[in-house]
Protein: N-methyltransferase
Amino acid sequence: MFMYARVPAGTKLPTYDSTPHPAMASSGTTEIIDIRPGPTEFDILQDIKKGLRPANGGEKTLPTLLLYDETGLRLFEKITYLEEYYLTNAEIEVLEKYADDIAERVKPGSIVLELGSGNLRKVNILLQAIERAGKDVDYYAVDLSLPELKRTFSEIPTAGYKHVRCFGLYGTYDHALEWLKSSKVHEKPKTILWLGSSLGNFKRHEVPPFLAGFRDAINPGDNMLIGIDSCKDADRVYHAYNDKDDVTHQFILNGLKHANRIMDDDSAFKLDEWEAIGEFDEQAGRHHAFVSPLKDVVVDGVSIPQGERIRIEESYKYSRDEVLRLWHEAGLVENTIFGTSLGNYGLHLVAKPPFYFSSYPEQYAAKPVPSLADWQQLWAAWDAVTRTMIPEDELLAKPIKLRNVCIFYLGHIPTFLDMHITRATDGSPTEPAYFTKIFERGIDPDVENPEKCHTHSEIPEIWPALEDILKFQERVRQRVHELYTSASTDSNPRVARALWLVFEHETMHLETLLYMLIQSEKVVPPPGTPTPDFAAQAHQSEALAVENQWFHIPEANITLGLEDPEDAASTNHYFGWDNEKPPRSAHVTGFQAKARPITNGEYAEYLIKTGKTAIPASWSDRPYDAQSIEQASKRDSVMNGANGHSNGVNGSIQNIIHGKYVRTVFGAIPLRYALNWSVVASYDEIAGCAQWMGGRIPTLEEVRSIYSYVEREKSKEFAKTLGKTIPAVNSHLLNDGVEESPPSGPFLNGNSGVSSSPDPHSIFASLEGVNVGFQHWHPVSVAEKGKQLCGQSDLGGMWEWTSTTLEKQDGFEPMSLYPGYTGSSSPPMPIRVLTAPADFFDGKHNVVLGGSWATHPRIAGRKTFVNWYQRNYPYVWAGARIVRDE
Ligand SMILES: C[S@@+](CC[C@H](N)C(=O)[O-])C[C@H]1O[C@@H](n2cnc3c(N)ncnc32)[C@H](O)[C@@H]1O
Structure:
C-alpha cells in the first residue's frame, strides 16, 4: 500500500560533499535536511498526462504518488490501524519481538537510513532498542513529504534519546541514493531500512535494479532490512486493501482530488463520478487498485468510457522463491529473516557481499573479453579469500602437503598476469622482475609418485614479504586498468586474448586455493557471510527430499567445442582453451541417467555395506571449529527433540555418520547436516560407489548429452509458458511467465542492457538457480532434485566426474599463448608453464564438467569448457551421478 516515485532520469543532482547540509526545517529538536537538487516540486503533472494517454492503446494509469498528499498520508495512517490491514501489525509484531536482535546487528557509529519513513511509530521500536543497546547511531528518515516528516518526528520522543541522533532527509529515494554516496557518509557503516513491504509497489522487474543501486552505494558488510509481505491468501490480501469501513477506497479516491490540484482544475476529476476498485490478481501475486468512472467522462481532453479502469496502485506479494530470486538478481545475500509467527511477513536482513557474479550469460559473459567491472569483482573475490580467509601465520603453510605454500599463490596470480600483459603489449615486466623466477609456476605433484612433480619455479629460501607482494599486485592491477582506459582491450586481439586468458586463469586459481584451504583446520570463514544454519537447511532438505529417478536420455548428435582461431584479427567471438577446440560433433546413443548426483548419505551407506573404512578427503574424523561443535551440540538437542529429524537413515549408517564431519569454509560440520549434499571424492572412490549402486559414471559425451537434453527440455517448457506477449528475455521469464497488464516493459534486470556481439547464449548457459559463482560458500542439498534431471553445473555446487580419460582430440593444437595448458597435472593448476609441452595426456586424468560453488560463471556456464583431474586426486570438488545402458 505504499507509493513509489522516481525522479525522472537525467535530473541533475547536486554533489553532496559532507554533512552538515543546510537544515531547511526542524521539527522540535530534529533537523530536517533538504536533499533535493533544487526547490522544484516533483513532476507529477507530466506523469498524469502520460498515464492518461498510454502508447499503443495500453492500460491507462495514474501515478501512485498522487495518493500521498497530506490528506492521503493521514488516511493512510488510519489504514495502518485497521484490523484488516495486517501488514502494519505484522511488522510491529516482528519489531517488538526482534528489535533487540536487529539492534545487535547495527554497528555502533553507523548510519541507519530509512526509505519512505512515513509515520515513525514502527521504526521507533527499533530506535528504542538501539538506545537500550547504548549504540551511538545517526538515524535518517527519508521522505518526500515534508509535512509528514515534521509531523511524525514531533510524535516520537527523539529528544530523550542519548545514543540515537535523528535527522529528516526531505527528498526522494533517488536523492537519498546520491546523498549516501557523499564522502563522509560513504565511509560509515550503514543499515538501510525499507519497511512496510514498500517494494511491493514496484513492478517485480524494477526491484532488483533499484536495490542494486543501493547495494552499490553501501560497503561490503553493510546491511539492508527490508519488509516483505509474502501472504498469498487471496481473501486476506483482498480485505487488507478493501476494508469494510471503506477507508482505503477514500484513500484511493483522494488521489483524484490531489490530481485536480496538480492539474489546477477542480473539476478535472468530479469525485462523485468515480469509484475505487480493488482486486487481487492471484496469477501475478499482487493486489491492484483502480479508479473507474461511473459514466462516460472526459479528463484533460481524454475520453474515458464508463467502467474503464485506471490503475493507480499495485502491491506485489513475494513467495519464498521470488524473494530468493530477488536477492540474487539484486546481488545481495540474505543473512536472516525476522518473521511473524504465521511466517507470511518478514523483515529480511540482507547484506552486500564482498563481490558478486551474475548468473546470466548476457551479464557474466557479455563480451569475449571480461570487462574492467568483471576484473574488479574477481579481484574482490581474490582479496576476500587471500586477505581474510588465510590467517597471516598460515601463509607459509601448505594445506595440501605436496603443493606450494599459500603465499606462493598470492605472488603467482599477479606475476602470471604481468607476464601475459608484458608479452601481449611487447612491454617490460613490472618490477621486481625477479618475481617471475619464483612465482611463474607452482608445484604440481603426481599423486601416485610425489617425487615426480612437473617442472616448477625455484623455491626461494625466503619468500618475499607479503607487503611487497601486495604492492606488486597493485602495480599489475593498475596496468590492467590502463589497458582498459587506453581501449587496447577491444582494438588489439593479442591484448584481448591475453586478458581473457589471465582472467580465467585467476578464476581457476581462486577455486583451487579454496579447495586447498578447506583442507586446513585454520581456514577463516568468508568475510561478511554469517555461518549458515546448516542444521535448519538439512532439516528443510530432508522434508523436500524425493526419490532419485532414472531418466531416459534420447539418442542425440551433440556438438563439442568451439571455433576460436588464435590468429583471428578480431575479438568478435568467444575464446576457448586448447582442449575446447576445434568444434566437433559426436553421436550419443540413448541411455538412462539418474536425476541427481550421489550424496554423502548414499556414500556413507556404501562404505558401511562394503565394509570400507577410508573416508573421502572432503570429510574429516573430527570437528575443527569450536563454533561448529557448539552449534552442533545445540542443534542436536533441538533435532532429537520434537522434530525427531534423523535424515531417514538407518541405525548402522548413523554409526558411520556419528563422529564424521564435512569440511567447509566455516569449519568441519557434522556429516549428518550434509547427507543430502553431493559427495565429493576422487574418481576412483566414486566409481566404486557407482558400480555398487548398479550403474556407472557417464562418459564426457553422455554428460554433455544430458546437459543439452536438459537445455532443450527447458526451452520447450519456456516456449509453452511463453504464450502470447509475456515479457521475457533470453529464456528467463519475467514474473515467472505470468502476463502482466500492462506488460512490464523492457527487461531491466541489474546491469543488463549490455549489447554484445556475439550472442553469449550461443556458448554460455543460464545459471539461474544453480549453486556456482559463490551463490553459497558451500554445497547445497540435491535431495529435492530427484524428479528433475540436473543440467550443467547443477549438482548442488560440484563438478561432475566423467569416465572419459583426457585425450588429445582430433585437431588439438597447443595454444601459442600458453602451450602447456592442457599439459601438466590438475587444472588450473599450479600453472602450466608458458613454454612446456602439453603433458596431461598421460592416461591418468579424467574429464570433469560443469562447475562447483566456487567456479566463476564464465567457466561453469561455458558449454565447451573442459576440466580434468587425476583419477585418484582427492581434493577436487567433484561428484558424480550414475547412468546405465538401456
Ligand atoms: C505509505 S508510507 C510507508 C511508511 C513506512 N515506511 C511504513 O512502513 O509505514 C510510504 C512513505 O514513503 C514515502 N515515499 C513514497 N515514495 C517515495 C519516494 N520515491 N521517495 C521518498 N519517499 C517516498 C511517502 O511519502 C510515504 O510517507
Summary: Confidence is low (pLDDT under 50) at residues 1-22, 626-649, 724-756, 824-838. The first strand starts at residue 23 and ends at 27. The CA atoms of residues 126 and 670 lie 36 Å apart.
